[in-house]
Amino acid sequence: MTADRPMIATAPRRLPAVIMAAFAALIAGAAMFAVPAGAATDDIATDCTPDASTTCVSPIVLDEEREPVPGVEVSIAGEGFEAVVTTTGEGPVSVEVPTRGTYTLTVNPDTLPADTHADPAEREVSAQTGATARGAFTIGTGPAPDPEATETETGTSSPADDPGAEGAEGLVEEDVTVSGLPSFGQVWQQVGSGLRFGLLLALASVGLSLIFGTTGISSFSHGEQVVIGAMGGFILINELGLPIWIAALLILVIGGLTGLLQDAAIWRPLRRRGTPAAQLMLVTIGLSLALQYVLQWIESGSMRIITSNPVPTTIAGITLSRASWISMAVALVVILAIALLLTKTRIGRAIRAVADNRALASATGIDPDAVVRIVWVSATALAALAGLLIGISFGSFTWNLGVQLLLLMFAAVTLGGLGTAYGALVGSILIGLVVELAGLVIPSDVRYATALLILILVLLIRPQGILGSRERIG
Signal peptide: which range, if any (predicted)? Predict the structure, then answer.
């Protein structure tokens, strides 16, 4: 308290200077806030790159062929910010906004090509720090539709709420017409989204299928391995600035080490004690809960955004981010490589032998413990890689992403046939297509129920799954 007395005593002498400084700061602050509101298009940088402290908004105007339309003015307003940008034919334009929040993008109809209209003419986007919030507008010919005649769903969703939707850095999907049937373009776009979701789900599910085939355990902690991969990717790419391909290699190693550690500390001792599979499954549930609490503590319960600077890329009439196309290709190549390894290599034949008959495989000189260890390491490594690709493709993730994906992974491997890599691939693609296409005709909150309904119907007809084989009894 004694240190404060001189300051209090001299306060009357400093009062005029303090008042003048505050007045100057007030004028400067008013000038700073007035510039964005009245900023002209030429004064705004349209190449915003998101980082840990930058928030970007990008309007995208496409024609009916999904090609960019240049020369269209789009106003961006919200959170005390207002600006007007003009689209180009070279790629999306993006501007930096002062803070995260909701921004309204409005197309100026006077700048559209003759006899065309924007559908919708206005869109709201949710901007997040470290990401680019994109709002897409489609330019159609003819008069503008009556806004009261057609009700549309707009906006974006994040993988934290929906693993099958584009995140804050992804593309904004086309509007879904509620009052009528979806168009062919909408269905085809959702097919592409379903293939993407299915391939990434298959990469995460194939390890779950192999674990069940060799150990008989349904691992409920497998979903957290996906989150570990996504979180590792966030640290390596966003925090350490490593290239994505180097991060992917490191994520494979990190994921494999977690599987090796789990097998050495938990599963191998329990196997040697002859612990039944049902009790081992309960252990995986406990491990899942423990990992969830750890991951939530590390993330502080907030959404993490993996910066990948997405670029819209159209292939066969389907527009996804370039990162999504690359992730789909990587997932497909890895899954096919695993399938070939299981069928064409010695270690693959050993894995299948242990899965078919553990005692007989041991009698022929195969070490079942070594095979199971390899399966655990491979499964956790593939799940971690899937988590990285999901984070890159959808832009963001949260600590409970594994819980949201786990039921779909179980449905995929059961639908395709337990214990087979090709079964996990087929089942996951079917789940992805059903989930995405169902969103066109039913509310998105219940579309995952359609995948489970398909699973029930298939199992009633073919209990072993699509590519599974019947078990011999006796």
Answer: 1-39
Nearest Cα to Cα of residue 222 among 372, 448, 403: 403
State the alpha helices, DSSP H only, in 307-442.
322-344, 346-356, 358-363, 368-394, 401-416, 421-438
Backbone angles phi, psi at 408, to 5 degrees: -70, -35
**Which residues are CB-neighbours of 128 under 8 A, at least 6 positions away?**
55, 100, 168, 303, 305, 396
Residues 250 and 332 in one domain: yes
Q: Could you read off the pLDDT of 130-172 as tens digits, one per residue?
A: 677 888 888 876 555 544 433 333 333 344 344 434 443 333 3
Mean pLDDT (whole number) for 249-255? 95
By residue count, the chain amounts to: 474
2-53 residue pLDDT tens: 444 444 344 444 444 444 454 444 444 444 433 333 334 445 667 787 765 6
Crossing angle for the helix pair 222-233 and 401-416, to the nearest 10 degrees: 130
The CATH number that applies at residue 124 is: 2.60.40.10
Nearest CA to 230 among 412, 381, 378, 398? 398
Distances (CA, A) of 248 to 90, 308, 322, 368, 410: 30, 13, 16, 29, 25
Query: Treating both helix axes as pointing N-terminal to C-terminal, what angle do 368-394 and 244-262 enclose, rounded to 10 degrees?
Result: 140
Put the strands of the sheet holding 81-86 in their side by side order.
81-86, 73-78, 101-107, 122-127
Task: Provide the pLDDT for residue 452.
Answer: 78
Q: Do residues 130 and 250 share a domain? A: no
Calculate the alpha carbon distances from 457 to 282, 328, 388, 415, 421 in Å: 28, 28, 33, 10, 22
Provide the CA 197 distance to its chain's centre, in angstroms.
9
CA 32 to chain centroid, in Å, comes to: 37
Residue 305 Ramachandran class (φ > 0 left, ψ -120 to 50 alpha, else beta): beta
* Structural domain boundaries enclosing 401: 187-461
**Residue 383 · residue 424 · CB < 8 Å:** no
The structural domain count of the chain equals 2
Residues 49-99 have pLDDT tens digits of 776 567 888 888 887 777 788 888 898 988 788 888 888 877 778 888 887
Distance, first Cα to last Cα, the chain: 87
